[in-house]
Write a structure and sequence with these properties.
By secondary structure, this protein is α+β, with helices and mostly antiparallel strands. The chain has two domains: 158 residues, Triple-stranded beta-helix, CATH 2.60.520; 92 residues, no CATH class. Helices cover 28% and strands 24% of the residues. Strands 9-6-10-11 form a four-stranded antiparallel sheet, with no helix packed on it. It has a three-stranded antiparallel sheet with strand order 1-3-4, with no helix packed on it. A two-stranded antiparallel sheet has the order 2-5. Strand 7 and strand 8 form a beta hairpin. Helix 2 packs antiparallel against helix 3 and helix 3 packs antiparallel against helix 4. The longest helix has 23 residues. The radius of gyration is 26 Å and the shape is globular. The two termini are 34 Å apart.
């Protein structure tokens, strides 16, 4: 969609289009900057659900923070309403269902605000009037606010009219009831959005630390009071070097999990490349 940057000048007659175009340009600018540092600057920051309703075939979100591929940020804590409960009774014949957060596509020809009338396509926004506090004073005033028209949909449905982002996967348990798959990892914007990924990272770091400590104990002191290995153990030297280089970075990512998982991938790929030095069966092409 073409964006026209408004010219803010004295005496200009203000119209909704000016603010809409300015907001669209700001979103485009933020997304362009994000893509300079990340290949995929979209995904889940937080996705929490009420598991107690799953036996009743109902999926209810309690907290969602998601950035869509077009740069739209959804935050149900600050600005957005939670989507309606998703009815799972319509998929009684399935044992696995991927759930996506869906946002109607933006129509460049307008008509994106739901006015209560029937429409052939879903509308992107809803309006709502809320009382807003004036921060400098003590008065409250009623303000019309824009809400994203969010829904929880199933990935196998016809979703061509929506932007979608996977948020969870549902599977049947031994009793045939729905439960969330703890192994499912959606597209992520932060490591902390996936408890299973954080658990695997902690376990990997534990194994690396144990192996590093074992190698450290095998060193000896040379005449220059420096630690080294025997000439025959030069491979152990390079293995210890690889582990020493990776551990501080991985530990920092574990301690500060509000980082993009691309940073974790880069470090794991670098570590895997170093370890492939000792492999006769694989080469760097095996790194995904």
């Amino acid at each position: 969609m073409k964006i026209y940057r408004p010219l803010w000048e004295d005496g200009a007659f203000l119209m909704p289009q000016q603010f809409q175009q300015q907001a669209a340009w700001d979103v485009h600018l933020a997304d362009s900057v994000a893509r300079m540092g990340l290949a995929h600057p979209w995904g889940v920051v937080a996705a929490e659900f009420d598991d107690s309703l799953l036996p009743l075939s109902r999926l209810n979100a309690t907290r969602l923070i998601v950035r869509f591929p077009d740069g739209t940020l959804i935050d149900t804590e600050r600005a957005d309403n939670l989507p309606p409960v998703c009815d799972l009774s319509t998929v009684s014949d399935r044992s696995l269902v991927d759930i996506v957060l869906a946002l109607p596509l933006l129509n460049a020809n307008g008509g994106n605000l739901d006015d209560g009338r029937e429409s052939e396509r879903p509308r992107r926004w809803k309006s709502e009037r809320v009382n807003v506090q004036e921060l400098a004073g003590h008065e409250q005033s009623e303000v019309a606010v824009l809400r994203h028209n969010l829904t929880l949909r199933m990935a196998h449905q016809e979703n061509a009219a929506w932007l979608t982002c996977p948020v969870t996967r549902l599977v049947r348990d031994a009793q045939g009831q729905w439960c969330r798959d703890p192994r499912f990892i959606p597209p992520l914007l932060t490591l902390s959005a996936s408890p299973s990924l954080m658990t695997e990272l902690a376990e990997l770091l534990h194994h690396l630390q144990a192996r590093r400590q074992r190698l450290m104990s095998m060193r000896r002191e040379n005449n220059a009071r420096l630690a080294d290995f025997a000439v025959a153990d030069v491979s152990l030297f390079w293995l210890l070097n690889a582990l020493n280089s990776a551990e501080p970075v991985l530990k920092e990512l574990l301690d500060m999990p509000y980082r993009h998982p691309e940073l974790l991938y880069r470090e794991l790929a670098r570590l895997a490349g170093s370890l492939l030095t000792f492999s006769l069966e694989h080469n760097v092409d095996a790194v995904p």
